[in-house]
Records
---
Amino acid sequence: MSSGAAARWVDAVVVAVSDVATGVRRIELGGPPAGRAAPGSHVDVRVHTPAGEDVRSYSVVESGGADGRVVVSVLHTRTSRGGSRFMHALRPGDGVRVTQPLQNFPLSVGSARHVLLAGGIGITALVEAARVLRLLGADYRFVYVGRTRDRMAYLAELEALHGDRMRVHVDDEGSPLDVDALVGDIADEDLGRRTELSMCGPIRLMEAVRRSWSDRELPSYNLRFETFGSSGWFEAEDFVVRVPELGIETRVGADSTLLDALITAGADVMFDCRKGECGLCVLAVTEVQGTIDHRDVFLSTAQRERGDRICACVSRVAGVGGEGVLVLGPP
Amino acid sequence: MPPLENHDRVTAKIFPHPLNAWYAAAWDHEVAGGSILARRIADLPLAIYRTSDGRPVALADACWHRLAPLSMGRRVGEDEVQCPYHGLRYNSAGRCTSMPAQETINPSAMVPSYPVVERHRYLWVWPGDVTLADPDLIPDMHQMSSDEWAGDGLTIEAQCNYQLVLDNLMDLTHEEFVHGASIGQSELSDSEFFTRHEEDGSVTVSRWMLGVPPPPFWSRIMRHRFPDFAGPVDRWQIIHYYAPSTICIDVGVAVAGTGAPQGDRSQGVNGYVMNTITPETERSSHYFWAFMRNFRLESQQITTELREGVRGVFAEDEAMLTAQQRAIDAHPDHTFYSLNIDAGGMWVRRILDRMLAAEETGGQAAEPVEPVAARRR
Ligand code: FES
Ligand code: FES
Ligand SMILES: [Fe+2]
């Protein structure tokens, strides 16, 4: 269910490309049989950008068949760091390195009610989930938000398939989404506390939903979102960590983690998930110069505000241009 | 896949089971109140319960944390279970909703929740690829919950591979030898039977025995409807198989020569033997059965008498199946050979093998089946 499988890189071939909306390119990849991807799967793709090789994640929109076909749809963004430009330049016959479908946004079929919320290209993460919910006869709503109709991929097909379970909001048609009203409606219904909302879209939309969700005191575990790796509030930068009791002082590079730096320096630190989830790597903070960029989901807001602990596997010190210093108690 | 290529797999003694299928996991009444039923379905241990509003739920029976069985835990809240070990709670979607010893909940914490549908007095679970779990694929057992039929049934925990039960039900010539005292008669082996393999993947085996003496079981039932009945009957057995493992048998007798073979069953009695067999492990199965009838619906006495009668008959099958499985395991080098009477069972095996092959390639469904095949003895 939740992503456990390690990524396996394989060679795939572009089988077909086509435009499914303004700026959105559908790319069909053929490769080793991958079976059918579970709803909420993505593939990682090795992209070539002006800055060198990099990895991007794209949701699997369709999959299956004996030939292991996987379809992704990619939005061309002018501000991108080169990933979408690379993907849009692909032509049938081109080779790409991809992983097998990886599951990090699993659909759970047993909820009393489901709301799926897609903003723009975020639709790609929810198309398959919606299809499965419909097949199962589940109680679901599918909300699709976009700026203009021509930029909303799969809109016509989805409206035809989901009928009145579908709500479409288009900014420039004067029907933008009222987030508080959407969340308020969920909260007011009998099944409110047993409704799961899964969303994928622009960070501003998702933040608004999160705020409204906690204002309405809906259970946090029923709010599911696809982030493709939490990125923190700051760019990663260098900082120095000191553990006086152990006589350790070492630099944490922008491309390393606090946990790795401590272990390399000889500290015996406990950890398990390395994703900021389990809390086993939490260390006591005695002093900090700079700001702690909490990137974990283990510490509560209140615990973060106290500023006296840090999840060493993902969180960092930032906001001071590489001059940050972190002093820790003994692990 | 061409039939020739896979033929060895078709006669496998320990037959694998498809996962992309609805399997009966429990009778509706077995999961009630605040209970959590532990049951292994298609080799998956499940914790099955109902939410406060009665919706059935099937979660993997192992806590995300240290894998303690959730079925040993408690039903709490509207739709949750609480792990008996360190108290994590999960909702009906399998999401963890509470980690008692910390202020947040790890968003990755969840257990698989399987699709469940309540239909025909059973809870059906889909253990395979959820994207294919179409409730329309649940086999037609409408007699179980129809106003025009009455009856009841039980479960046999059969200590054998599920395919052995299917073989047993697809060929009823065994009645003469296994059920000689109740429903068996020598005319079973002497009569013609027809096997039809339908386009939709179902198989039908029909047998008519005309002008035969009724065996004890059927004489008694006839007298429930026609107290003065005596004499020969026309007897029928029409076996309907629905993939992967449901068999509904249209059975009955009518006064001989009153037109039953032509469709007039008014001078007879008609029952349906409902069977759906769920693999538990490679060598054990949950065998759910019921006997339904379409006359004297008001009589609970007849319902009970029939259920107890069939229970006795099926106990004879169970003893045979258990012994057969033991002999199979004691002779690992011996293979199965087939007889003409195995036509129905062999079609079932071929259909199952195609389902398995489709699952191996990740394909969506079996390739179209061949044209209707008929075999005549
Ligand atoms: S190792 Fe799990 S939170 Fe850091
Ligand atoms: S094993 Fe379930 S809470 Fe620990
Ligand atoms: Fe039998």
Note: Chain A has a mean pLDDT of 88.
---
Amino acid sequence: MNYQVDEKGYYGVFGGAYIPEMLYPNIKELREKYLEFIEDPKFQEEYVMLLKDYVGRPSPLFLAERLSKKYGAKIYLKREDLNHTGAHKINNTVGQILVAERLGKKRIIAETGAGQHGVATATVCALKGLECIVYMGAVDIERQAPNVARMKMMGATVIPATSGSQTLKDATNEALRDWINHPTDTHYILGSVVGPHPYPDMVARFQSIISEETKWQLQEKTGKSTPDYVLACVGGGSNAMGMFYHFLNDEDVKLIAVEAAGKGVDSGESAATTLLGKEGVLHGSRSLVMQTEDGQVVEPYSISAGLDYPGIGPQHAHLFTSRRALYVSITDDEAMQAGMELSKLEGIIPAIETAHALAYLDKMKFKEDDVVVVCLSGRGDKDLDTYMKYFGL
Amino acid sequence: MNRINQLFEQKKQSLLSIYFTAGYPDLNSTLDIAEALEKAGADFLEIGIPYSDPLADGPVIQHSSLTAINNGMTIKVLFEQLKELRSRVTIPVLLMGYFNPLLQYGVEHFCSSCKEVGVDGMIIPDLPMYEYEDLYEEYFSLNEIRNVFLITPQTSDERIHKIDELSNGFIYLLSSSSTTGKDLNVSDQTENYFSRIKNMQLKNPTMIGFGISDHTSFAKASEYADGAIVGTAFVKLLEKDGFMEQIPEFIKGLKG
Ligand SMILES: Cc1ncc(COP(=O)(O)O)c(C=O)c1O
């Protein structure tokens, strides 16, 4: 089975580029050039150097002993939280800023939910001296205030998206509108494996470093490069895609993607796209989308801003329908408890997004020698306010 | 013969097309507005199907879409309303809508519903050309629905020729690459672009839209194309009290 994009930009029936004509020239340019750029040895040299010396890669693969003991398996944490800026998002922005440079673009735009992608974009723009504009839902600006301040410190302009639910979906709309209005000088650094082709493939390639490293790290530590289970949380799906990428063809590795159930999948306040969504088009690709019968996109809900999105990337939609990966969901409460648990057991405070993946451990049945890798997509500093309110700290 | 083709064939002067959102400002205002526009002298109409995430639209049309959705407008409701279309309106009517609601309704079903109520064409800004060609064109032709494509100043000549080949109603020239509701800013560059298209001798007629808001911009656009399309400026009028009475004046003001 082929899990990668075909020459028309599709994963099975999902993907494509459903964009207005105004975006066509930019998307076409990107489609024609991204592989050539990425495969260029000069690009690779700079990309690898930046990942090493600036981001701090390889990120450690850590055997979490107390967590392992609790769940009765060997649980490794892939420490993307230790990357510069605190999440996996920077793997992608480092790659895309090099693409933007080669395209000769002077102005960078991005959307952000939790603010991690916005921060990672502002960071690489500061590094390269490029103008940076980040769209962020007004609700998210409120709940992720430290990240807003970080973006500003690095010289980015943060523009609130005030339409709709004022979260990630709306920020993405505003970024796409900005791109329509700046057709020649701007590159849009999309932050997940969503959007029109070639974004899902390009972002997945930049995030695939996560599983590339995991493979040799596991080999070193366990004598075997493949685990039994791989877990990651899914908003748009970039950390999960990066975590799955090099295991896709190892069919005996079970891939588990954890979505946000919000207040419960039947509560009307949820972001569990594979359960609640159906085939549709959002932000330029055909995928699974949470929507009304009439095709209006519904406003999702999750306590975690990074998972508060009514779609998933087209490659995930393909992995879901082909059953290559298992899609499950975790509620706000379960995630918050799991975040607290990891803090207490391992001295690692995870992002609330990441806590969703951790919470699923409790629902699994392991054999003692099962090897499990959880993508620790980000650290919890940005979420302290939410943790404090939730636990009355 | 399709009303759109007929209109362009018999055209004596520059054509004016007006866009407005179905179900805005009131759920049932759609046909009253259409009828008033024809009486006032609009040459054809584009009725927008409201969508929750209208990527190509600025704040005014976003607001009208959201209000219309909240008013209860859906594709089903719209086709119910349009059952009366041809007893009240004779000029060509296109529907303009984003792809997702159409996909949920079913594209084939959508095209046959259009034919049933007497809709003549469609504008679907986010439906890619090759998808249209591969999967949907036959439903459009079968039901004689004209699909209208957009062109921007950045669209290559090669692509324009391809669009011309695929089109059989008219081609929609965007005055600039922008979302709806920005003022037309006619620079040398814009005029060069308009002339470039004019000189390409396309087989399809052309209409210029985006940023046309008054007689000056309408007249300017008419120098280069078969006419112009007004959207945001008209939707703004609908926000005012007593807009029905002001429609004749508005159209007269545009045509001069
Ligand atoms: C720490 C962290 N994990 C996960 C996500 C979700 O994004 P994705 O599904 O693209 O990995 C985010 C998004 O902001 C994040 O900050």
Note: Chain A has a mean pLDDT of 97.
